[in-house]
């Protein structure tokens, strides 16, 4: 018996690509899908019908904000999971989203699974999610439903709102969510703050009354999410920032400092730049000193003067000890 032709294989690959796109965000217009797949709008309609024939609940709507949407169905699509398998997978992903390694991938997979869970399973998974915990050096606990809401808002490119402490009071924030970022300690949301007209990162554990709107936005040119949040957490949130040139490989220094305490950038194979912040410069200087490597102060200039003062004080103390 002959195998599938090249055209058949191409159609299958294209339909699978279409399914992946529909799982990435809430609504796609026909022209958007046609452009992504490199086909005509008519071909998109045919491929949508192929997915429906396979049991995938693809909905279509007209007018402003309309398009194709992959919705939850009465049954899971064929060749995926039965009820028990779907619940077990979702709970495993919920647990994975709360630990240090694999949390980002687990959360992405969970948002995709949530898109195709039937209503009867979705409510059961969310009810059971409260029994999932972790221990050890994990992150600050956050509500899994909040993570899911924010992850879907990032995926679907819709505005989000939440209460957030500022200046001693909780204020409502309106944002265009971009990425969820996990540090070694906490979950953060990188978003464009519509009231402050600038990029901001927010601690997820400090949010209250989190909600996602149906209003979609056009994505802006965004900074690198992980790098932006790390630099903000490690230095920009503090009143004093400092930069050092450390005479040791970046890989070695990264094992000595927490990612939330400093940004380490390669400067050749044997040196690296360390950027950190603190409430006072003495703490930053002591932190770098205790790494045990030779280093140079790049910024700020007053830190060089302060290091000489401390060096003289230490020399004097050492002399008296003799």
TrEMBL record:
Family matches, as PROSITE patterns: HTH_DEOR_1 (PS00894), HTH_DEOR_2 (PS51000), WYL (PS52050)
InterPro entries, sorted: CBASS_pafABC_assoc_protein, DeoR_HTH, HTH_11, PafC-like, Tscrpt_reg_HTH_DeoR_CS, WCX_dom, WH-like_DNA-bd_sf, WH_DNA-bd_sf
Domain HTH deoR-type residues, every copy: 11-66
Alphabetical keyword list: DNA-binding, Transcription, Transcription regulation
GO molecular function: DNA binding; DNA-binding transcription factor activity
Keyword DNA-binding attributed: yes
SUPFAM superfamilies registered for this protein in UniProt: Winged helix' DNA-binding domain
PANTHER family referenced in this protein's UniProt entry, alphabetically: PROTEIN PAFB, PTHR34580
UniProt protein name: Predicted DNA-binding transcriptional regulator YafY, contains an HTH and WYL domains
